[in-house]
Amino acid sequence: MNVERILLAEDNPEDVELTLEALGDVNLANEVVVVGDGAEALDYLKRTGKYSRRSEGDPAVIFLDLKMPKVDGLQVLREIRADPALRSIPVVIMTSSREESDLVESYKVGVNAYVVKPVDFGQFAESVKRVGLFWAVVNEPPPGSLRKA
Amino acid sequence: MKTASLMSGRGPQGSELAGRAPLFLFGVGLLIALAAAVLSWLQIRRLIEDAERVDQSRRVLEVIESLRRFLARAEASQRGWILTREASFREKEAAARRGLQASLEEAGALTADHPAQQGRCRELAPLLEERGSLLDKGGDDGPTALRERIRQGDLVTDRILGILRTMETEERGLLESRNADSHRSADRTLLAGATSGAVSCASFAMGMALYIRETRRRRRAEAAILQANARLEAANLEIREAGAQVEAFFNKSLDLTAVADFDGRFRKLNPAWEKVLGWPLAELLARPWLDFIHPDDRTATIQAAERLGAGATLIQFQNRYRCRDGGYRWLSWNVPAPVPGSSTLYSTARDVTDLKAAEERILALNKELEAFSYSVSHDLRAPLRHANGFVELLQKHAGPALDDKSRRYLKTISDAVNKMGRLIDDLLSFSRSGRGELKSGHVGMASLVEEVRRDLQADMEGRSIVWDLKPLPDAWGDPALLRQVWINLLSNAVKYTRHRAEARIEVGTESGNGQGPSCYYVRDNGAGFDMKYADKLFGVFQRLHASHEFEGTGVGLANVKRIVARHGGSIWAEAKVGEGAVFYFTVPLAGEVGR
What we know:
- The complex is a heterodimer.
- By secondary structure, chain A is of the alpha/beta class.
- Chain A has 5 helices and 5 strands, in the order E-H-E-H-E-H-E-H-E-H.
- Chain A has helices spanning 13-25, 38-46, 73-82, 100-109, 121-138, and strands at residues 6-9, 32-35, 61-64, 91-95, 113-116.
- In chain A, strands 2-1-3-4-5 form a 5-stranded parallel sheet, with helices on both faces.
- In chain A, helix 3 (73-82) links the parallel strand 3 and strand 4 (91-95).
- In chain A, helix 3 (73-82) runs parallel beside helix 4.
- Chain B is of the alpha+beta class.
- Chain B is built from 13 helices and 12 strands.
- Chain B has a 5-stranded antiparallel sheet, sandwiched between helices.
- The two termini of chain B are 56 Å apart.
- In chain B, helix 12 runs antiparallel to helix 13 (556-566).
- Mean pLDDT of chain B is 84; it is low at 1-14.
- The chains are: A alpha/beta, B alpha+beta.
- The A-B interface holds A 12, 14-15, 18, 21, 66-67, 95-100, 117-122, 124-125 and B 373-374, 377-379, 381-386, 388-393, 417-418, 420-421, 425, 428, 432.
């Protein structure tokens, strides 16, 4: 059984596919759980709504898109950091936006990393792989996170 | 009145004293002259008295002489009578005796002031009587008796003559001393006259001199006063004119001018107030100004007034004033700090309602633009990434099965998408460089250039480039934006020298008319361009080279120009086709701008 150690919050199916494709190259695709918007991401993390029955354990890292329907990435980040049970989970913003205001705001709220997705797929894939490997494999997650099977 | 006050204002008592000096001297001169006159008069009187006494002595001597004469005549007559017994001798004798009598009386009168001579006169009287009466005693004496009588008569005569001699001697002595007295008196009189004349003349002359001096002085002072008055008059006129000008300026100003106090009321307003707010001036003056201010702006306005009270100057403080029709107008205030110790405020306000509305529109537009570029940034790049991604995936999956043509198509799609991505990035950067506030500070241009050059290392792979980096003065500006300027200019220089065996890139400053550095420049020996098209150089999407020759989006220099312009500077270029180009730009230098 796969351990879902990476939570990918991304509303765009193409991006999801490309991200999974890249992560597949480093054998991490199977450990990803995908949610389509911020509200779903919070449900997953807090085990509410359709995720009220999911098994215990927090993801080792959350990949968060900024621009999502319902609840945007920044808001999700704020709620994670405001929740004592979730606040130590590493969060990586993965976005198309180079806007400085987004960058500043994200770090203000307490993001762990901020990655701008390159247009060139080669570069994009490279970034995703590195980020995935680092946070899900190299980095030692906080206690209570799901460990590699 | 002004003149009087001017004079009294200047009036030291010294000049009054000086003014009285001639009068005083005249008085003294007059007194001296008077005293001299009195003295002269006394002296002259004494002179006359002395002369009279001299005369008196002379007459006494004359009288003595006539006494001698009458005595001789009386004796001769007596002798004649004795010899002839003629009656005529007795008559002559009687006449001589009367002469003697008269002369003696005269002598007594003349010597009244001289007791000794008087005594002698008294002595003479009985002797003369005795001598005269010689014939009266018995006229017919014999010759012996006659001889006796004559002998006795001679004795008396001798005594008389002796007395007369004594008198004469005495009187001559007197005459001599009186003569001397008289001469001395005359000398003294002359001296007194001369002295008093001289003193009078001297004091008169001094008085005159002082008078003339004083008159001149007064005339000069009067001229000065006249001049000062003229100046005062001119100054008054100027002040009145200036006052009228200030008044006109105050009243005719299109801005709202106001004189106010810290008591919360206006003291004076110009008609522009009525025009802008619709209230009659009287109403604006009658009520506290806080009544007219928008409730939301009151706190800020009170705080602004407190700052003024603390000595601050108010620049472009904005608040809303209620109009008579119920609407509000935005006023932008400029109020200089009140003069220390004064509570009067001289302020001008401008109706900026329209400006505010325009500002708000611009803000709204800016917000919209921001949202637009955000959307471009996020939403346009995503599909590009996807297109690119799936082309890659397609190549990966179907790669071996594809023929060369299909692979070339895929590559063309991928290149086009990548170029679109760069265009979008450049446009976003261009859009960003025009927005947002300049975060100005001290910028070390030399180190910035060095950093940018290092960042360009990848583009210089396999190239031979000679860099000539001259010392650069620090600038005052937004470091991130100025960095963008250097990135564009240096990467252009690297790019357009690509075909040179040895590229030369020089960075430095040029000094304008010897007054220190005026502009930065980047010089290269690259492809250059035709100056005919220099005006297109800095336009967006304008390119002077084909993209197959030198790649690019045509946004870089437009971006540079905008950044330089935002710093208040300018940019221009000089070039020659095939020889290279120089780009010059100015931005504020750190030394020129105060903190």
